[in-house]
From TrEMBL:
One BP term from GO: cytochrome complex assembly
The keyword NAD belongs to this UniProt entry's keyword annotation: no
Domain of life: Bacteria
Organism lineage string: Bacteria, Pseudomonadati, Pseudomonadota, Alphaproteobacteria, Sphingomonadales
SUPFAM superfamilies with a match to the protein in the record: TPR-like (SSF48452)
TPR repeat extents: 50-83, 240-273
Protein name per Swiss-Prot or TrEMBL: Tetratricopeptide repeat protein
Keyword field: Cytochrome c-type biogenesis, TPR repeat
Amino acid sequence: MAILAAALTWRLVGTASEGADAAPVSTVEEAAPQSFEEMRELAEQAGGDPVPWQRLGFAHFSANMYPEAAEAYEEAVERAPDSADLWSALGEARIYADESDPMPPAALEAFRRSVALDPGNPRARYFLAVQRDLSGDNDGAIADWLALLADTPPGAPWETDLIRTISQVGQREEIDLQPRIEQAMATRDILPASATGGIPGPTQDQMAAAAGMSPGQQQDMAEDMVSRLAARLEGDPANVDGWIMLMRSYQTLGRTGQARDAYAHALEANPQAEGQLRAAAEALGL
């Protein structure tokens, strides 16, 4: 029997790898009105701003009001069609809104739109693997989930549930996946999975070498990579993707103050990319 799509719930509006969307998407941490009616009224008055609709969708989803959440997210993506975060949130809401189909076509379409905008979007990647599992491609689903785990920053909010999902599928299929889980966790990047704009990232050889290092040696390797990234950006301050990578790297290392400083420098150097940088900062909790 295929694993239920509800096994892992991404009740997050933004994640560490979802910060590069074009739309200025919020993490819904600001003070909200007291009622859904007030939230909807504000959203309707917001014109082309997707954020109030996103907040309404998140609030409905958190209250298990899934059809209403899907409706609000549909309004949000209409205003911000380039937001991978919003498309993946819409896809999840559509799943929970449909009690008869574990992967409604409309949800699948939303996830595909999300990864077309951001191939690394964790929520969309997870549910697309669910679809493979539902279709009978269990090996493909397992491979996709393990690849997602390899790209997951240590301590990410979804890490524990993702590991649990992989383990449950292994038990169902009578496959010992623990060695593959450990391998994915041992070789994953401390930096984001994609290294764009010539920003240095770990090569396959470096990842293999890191697997045999002590925790202290792995930490030193990560610190060196982040230092080189910061130095590269001093000479290339217009590299927005590089700044987002540096912000995420500092945050992953627990250096929130430096992550915020990197955000400030990025804004100063790239005022035209304020929306993209703000979305990344909010997704990282800065």
